[in-house]
# Entry
Amino acid sequence: MANMMWAGRFTKEIDSRVNDFNSSISFDARMYRFDIEGSMAHAAMLGDCGIIDKSESEAIVEGLKGILADIDSGALQIDTTAEDIHMFVESELTKRLGDTGKRLHTARSRNDQVALDVRMTAKYELGEIRALTVSLIKTITDIAEQNLTTVMPGYTHLQRAQPITFGHHLMAYAMMLLRDLGRLDDCYKRTNIMPLGSGALASTTYPINRQQVCDALGFDEITQNSLDGVSDRDFCVEFVSALSLLMMHLSRFSEEIILWCSWEFKFIELDDAYATGSSIMPQKKNPDVTELIRGKTGRVYGDLNTLLTMLKGLPLAYNKDMQEDKEALFDACDTVKLCLKTFEPMLATMRVLPDNMRNAAARGFINATDCADYLVKKGLPFRDAYKITGTLVHICIEKGLTLETLPIEEYKALCETFDTDVYDAISLDTCVMQRKAAGGPAPESVKAQIEYVRAKLEK
# Structure
């Protein structure tokens, strides 16, 4: 009991099984830097406000700097038998400074201390994931720029629908990831609020200066209600929700890559460094990276569900249930970072096979809409043009032809409005080049999309 900071109220040793069950050091040890930085700001404020002697405040700060340096260098190993990282740091400080170290926890609780540490950790992770996402978007725009005229079929219902370009297709994912960046930035705003000073739930009677700590730690503002300050984990839910959407986009992209590198499509080939083989089939080259990302998406969804379920029935203020926030948050962050770090180089090293894309685009009558539009531009109502074109497709299927190889006589037999210029109108290049509307697949439109994304990233 002597090692427990809260031991004074108790007369019996805690059961070792309860101690193990209660302990969080195995996962919250990763917050040691933020715990120490928060404690240094708190100690400096205590001294500046005259709550503890200035010399003791300075000694605490120096002692904490020493602990941080020793952990970083490996000279000090975190004790895995400690209850949590907060108790470990305070205990180590007391070993080094004696009674002076015991003054660190004046005017704060572990409740607002852990709330601070989690927010500081989340801020750091948001920055890490944001940088990785930005890097991936840049890679996508670079590949898109190299494929402005690489014609491929666009799909609906996984059926060939209309001709687009590979650059156009890639930029769809750049837009998705750009929205993910926006969500991460919005989440950062609500994460960057400083809870220390909320105490256990009802603040403190000491004349603390919360704004000083807020400024020292780089937060935008302080929490405005002490109950909410220790109970709020909205930012964790919001963060993992944003990560779930990010993973959903990576999963959709992964699914397309899985399709594209199959022999049935063969639009791309993954670099050997980002594929695996089979233990029994020597010909296999499996897209395991993308399959794992697809699978790990469910893991991040599970982390989000953990947080939502953990919080849904909690009365104010702090409850031990909230210890479960960290494992879910950390797992989601680690999973997303691992996926981003692997996905980007896989994408950057893949080989695009433009001839296969174009050959696929040449089949499936994906220029049928353009054939109908040809008649509309010559004065026919769209529904009439639609029916005529549908009949032409039926004739082509019966005769084993395409719209490009169907004789002009067949066109004219169905509608006199057709002339030989129809072949130019339905060529794949024309179909793509003429779709110049903002957001479309024409090269100048895709260039504009690339410039838009890059300008957003610059901001």
